[in-house]
From TrEMBL, chain A:
Record keywords: Nucleus, tRNA processing
Top-level taxon: Eukaryota
The UniProt record lists the keyword Cell cycle: no
Name of encoding gene: TRM6
Similarity field: Belongs to the TRM6/GCD10 family.
Organism of provenance: Coemansia umbellata
Protein name listed in UniProt: tRNA (adenine(58)-N(1))-methyltransferase non-catalytic subunit TRM6
From TrEMBL, chain B:
Protein name as catalogued: tRNA (adenine(58)-N(1))-methyltransferase catalytic subunit TRM61
Organism, scientific name: Coemansia spiralis
Single biological process term from Gene Ontology: tRNA methylation
Catalytic activity reported: adenosine(58) in tRNA + S-adenosyl-L-methionine = N(1)-methyladenosine(58) in tRNA + S-adenosyl-L-homocysteine + H(+)
Broad class of enzyme this protein falls into: transferase
GO cellular component: nucleus; tRNA (m1A) methyltransferase complex
PANTHER family in the cross-refs: TRNA (ADENINE(58)-N(1))-METHYLTRANSFERASE, TRNA (ADENINE(58)-N(1))-METHYLTRANSFERASE CATALYTIC SUBUNIT TRMT61A
Residues the record lists as binding S-adenosyl-L-methionine: 134, 180
Entries under SUPFAM superfamilies matching the protein: S-adenosyl-L-methionine-dependent methyltransferases
Keyword terms, alphabetized: Methyltransferase, Nucleus, S-adenosyl-L-methionine, Transferase, tRNA processing
Length: 397, 317
């Protein structure tokens, strides 16, 4: 029997999409019907042209903001053994096109009158030293120019990996500096699965919460505790989560942790206006929600406790461990090891925990090209630390 | 079991018996049987009915063990090694990159010791499916038995098959493919065949040698895969200790501090030497600091992870 397949992921009206540009910089944009999406010097395109497409293709922008899938060139076989800079002199006069001529070509290109290939062709034709370059450096030169002049883009789904990667590059402080590999280990260590009930604290604008939600099915739940009156899980809005998925998030403010519910007693005045009626209903819904949430939390026996907090993590652990089930995982993330040391020492001394571990994750990307494979020249300095431990069942002896 | 938590140990469960981080053992609970270790023996019938995460004393009361719920992460630490296995950092990174979540259909080749299979099954259950292929007949049979014991048969289909000779026998079915083969480049055509054509497909090839990566990347490129990217990931374990951190004045005054004593022994010595003063803290001399450092030897390389995507087919205009 063939298994059920998930629906293909199509770009829908109102979806957020990560757009990677020829420069390899990315931006996150909302694809709204009727709108034009601007990619700066790489041109702009009509959002409607992208709606209904699948992910995976690179698109080329045509005149008037139309787009078409663009077959990407495969590997080139330039041979590095011939590469040398013996004949290359740093000569600004090598380029015969004037600054003005190049600027005018760029403007025409942006208007869609000249293709990127045409600009690059005229740049190489008019570059006196180009002919003297080896095949290897010719290919490198053309690639560099493509990064500047191609009017193409790759739309990428805001999967947890892509979203984490994007925010880590764009604004790592927003997500408390958690890198994709660290986030992935957090999900494994916490043993997140479809039906899991997870207690979580995420002061990193909801990336961790989003990652947890993405791994849940119908029976699962994330119970999140946040400071302030309402949570600020901004990252969630980029994830294109379904309504059912968002329903799996329950949120409670720290200020309500020890709240005792009173029965809802508000009565309507005789001459109540429509506003009064609506107001009372709203407060009643809030009352029911808070009461449900508190009952839910106090049932305890959560399947995992996941913490990424700006507060002292040990103080958070101590407050929330009573709600964690036996033989279930505690996982705490922080950008710095120092913030986790006191918690580590406490967990190790506690007879409620086993197998306390503190790990730093390390990730290196490589350039892979025929005969030119090597680690990337730049890498991230750190992706954060994970403290984990197994919580035991309460003992009788 | 591996894809759903339970609270109480029952007959037939596979549990993890924990003595220390280095001494964990999987045990298939069956009344009448006995688990023995250097602390004594433990009757399976005494385990049944206990809550997961409980402590169990041995029959002679000489020691105890903890009875843990199995998870894919623990299984990775206790799985009987029939092959080199995948470890948590690689398993985690591959799963996130391939966007595994409930409902996804995945192909794994080869199954090996089944370490990754357990983790995949946990993540894609209950609606997803894993097809896993192993060309070694005995390994395939052993893994099949394990998946059955772990109640994973509805999520994992294992087949003894030489995919290099015969392909996967699957077309347009998988969201993701994982290849852990000596020559993954020879299976790229089959992988392409197996991946769905109506939505983005993702592939990961796991190879310890850079020469394998080279050949794999060329094959991926040739078969129309794009976004070929390669990573290496590791997790570095740290040890945390409280150590003496005295002022140098102590040495100037002729005091000699034993830096090797553990925190516990330091406390004991102190109580013995000055029982009268009790907890009195003589600053400088008793100063301590909480420190951490990476453990002395760590895993330096597991494998290179080569990823690529397969764009859905587009109709020609």
């Amino acid at each position: 029997m063939e298994p059920m397949q998930l629906d293909p992921t199509l770009i829908k009206d109102g979806d957020f999409v990560v757009i990677r540009m020829p420069s390899t910089n990315s931006k996150i944009v909302c694809i709204k019907s009727g709108a034009t999406v601007s990619l700066g010097k790489f041109g702009s395109f009509k959002a409607d042209a992208l709606i209904g497409n699948t992910f995976g293709h690179t698109f080329e922008i045509e005149k008037g903001g139309a787009i078409k899938p663009h077959k990407q060139a495969g590997f080139d076989n330039a041979d590095i053994t011939e590469a040398n800079n013996k004949e290359i002199f740093d000569d600004p006069k090598a380029q015969k096109l004037s600054f003005e001529e190049i600027e005018s070509l760029k403007a025409k290109s942006l208007a869609g009158d000249v293709s990127a290939q045409e600009i690059i062709a005229s740049l190489t034709e008019n570059n006196e030293s180009f002919a003297r370059k080896t095949e290897f450096s010719k290919s490198k030169y053309i690639k560099r120019k493509q990064k500047k002049f191609m009017k193409s883009f790759l739309p990428m789904e805001t999967t947890v990996h892509n979203a984490c990667d994007f925010f880590f590059e764009a604004n790592s402080q927003k997500i408390r500096g958690i890198r994709t590999d660290t986030l992935s280990q957090l999900l494994s260590l916490a043993n997140v699965y479809s039906d899991a009930r997870i207690l979580a604290v995420d002061d990193g604008q909801g990336l961790v919460i989003s990652a947890l939600l993405s791994r849940l099915g119908d029976g699962g739940q994330v119970f999140a505790i946040h400071d302030g009156d309402v949570h600020n899980y901004d990252v969630m809005r980029y994830m294109n989560f379904s309504a059912e998925c968002k329903e799996r998030l329950k949120a409670l403010s720290w200020s309500k942790l020890y709240h005792e519910m009173e029965p809802f007693t508000e009565e309507l005045a005789k001459n109540a206006t429509e506003d009064d009626i609506n107001g009372r209903e709203r407060r009643m819904r809030g009352h029911t929600k808070l009461s449900d949430n508190l009952r839910n939390l106090r049932e305890g026996e959560f399947d995992a406790l996941v913490i990424s907090t700006n507060y002292n993590p040990l103080s958070v652990i101590k407050k929330l461990v009573p709600y964690l089930g036996g033989s279930r995982m505690l996982v705490v993330y922080d950008q710095s090891k120092e913030a986790l040391l006191e918690s580590f020492a406490w967990l190790r001394e506690s007879c409620e925990f086993l197998n306390v571990q503190l790990t730093e994750s390390w990730l290196r990307e490589y350039q892979v090209l025929p005969k030119r494979t090597h680690p990337m020249m730049g890498m991230s300095g750190g992706g954060g630390f994970l403290l984990s431990a197994i919580h035991l069942a309460p003992t009788e002896d | 079991m591996f894809h759903k938590y339970k609270s109480v140990i029952e007959e037939g469960d596979t549990i993890i018996v924990y003595v220390s981080p280095e001494a964990m053992r999987p045990v298939h609970v069956k009344s009448g049987e006995i688990f023995n270790n250097r602390f004594g023996s433990f009757r399976h019938s005494d385990m049944i009915g206990l809550r997961y995460g409980s402590k169990l004393r041995s029959n002679n009361d000489k020691g105890f063990v903890y009875l843990l719920h199995p998870t894919p992460a623990l299984w990775t630490q206790v799985v009987p090694h029939r092959t080199q296995i995948l470890y948590l950092p690689d398993i985690s990174f591959i799963s996130l990159y391939l966007d595994l979540r409930p409902g996804k259909v995945m192909i794994e080749c080869g199954t090996g010791s089944g370490s990754f299979s357990h983790s995949i099954a946990r993540t894609i259950a209950p609606t997803g499916h894993l097809y896993t292929f192993e060309y070694h007949e005995l390994r395939a049979a052993t893994a099949k038995k394990e998946f059955e014991e772990h109640n994973l048969s509805s999520i994992i289909t294992i087949e003894h098959r030489d995919v290099l000779a015969n392909g996967f026998g699957k077309t347009d079915i998988a969201d993701a493919v994982f290849l852990d083969l000596p020559a993954p480049w020879e299976a790229i055509a089959s992988a392409k065949d197996a991946l769905r054509k109506d939505t983005i497909g993702r592939i990961c090839c796991f190879s310890p040698c850079i020469e394998q990566v080279q050949a794999t990347a060329l094959a991926l490129d040739e078969h129309g895969f794009s976004e070929i990217r390669m990573f290496e990931c590791l997790a570095k374990d740290n040890e945390v200790r409280t150590v003496p951190f005295p002022d140098i004045e102590e040495a100037i005054n002729g005091q000699k501090i034993n830096f090797k004593l553990s925190k516990c022994d330091r406390k004991k010595r102190k109580l013995e030497s000055e029982p009268a003063s009790g907890g009195h803290d003589d600053e400088g001399k008793d100063a301590e600091i909480l420190i951490s450092k990476p453990i002395d030897t760590a895993r330096g390389h597991t494998s290179y992870l080569t990823f690529a995507i397969l764009a859905p087919e587009v109709e020609e205009e």
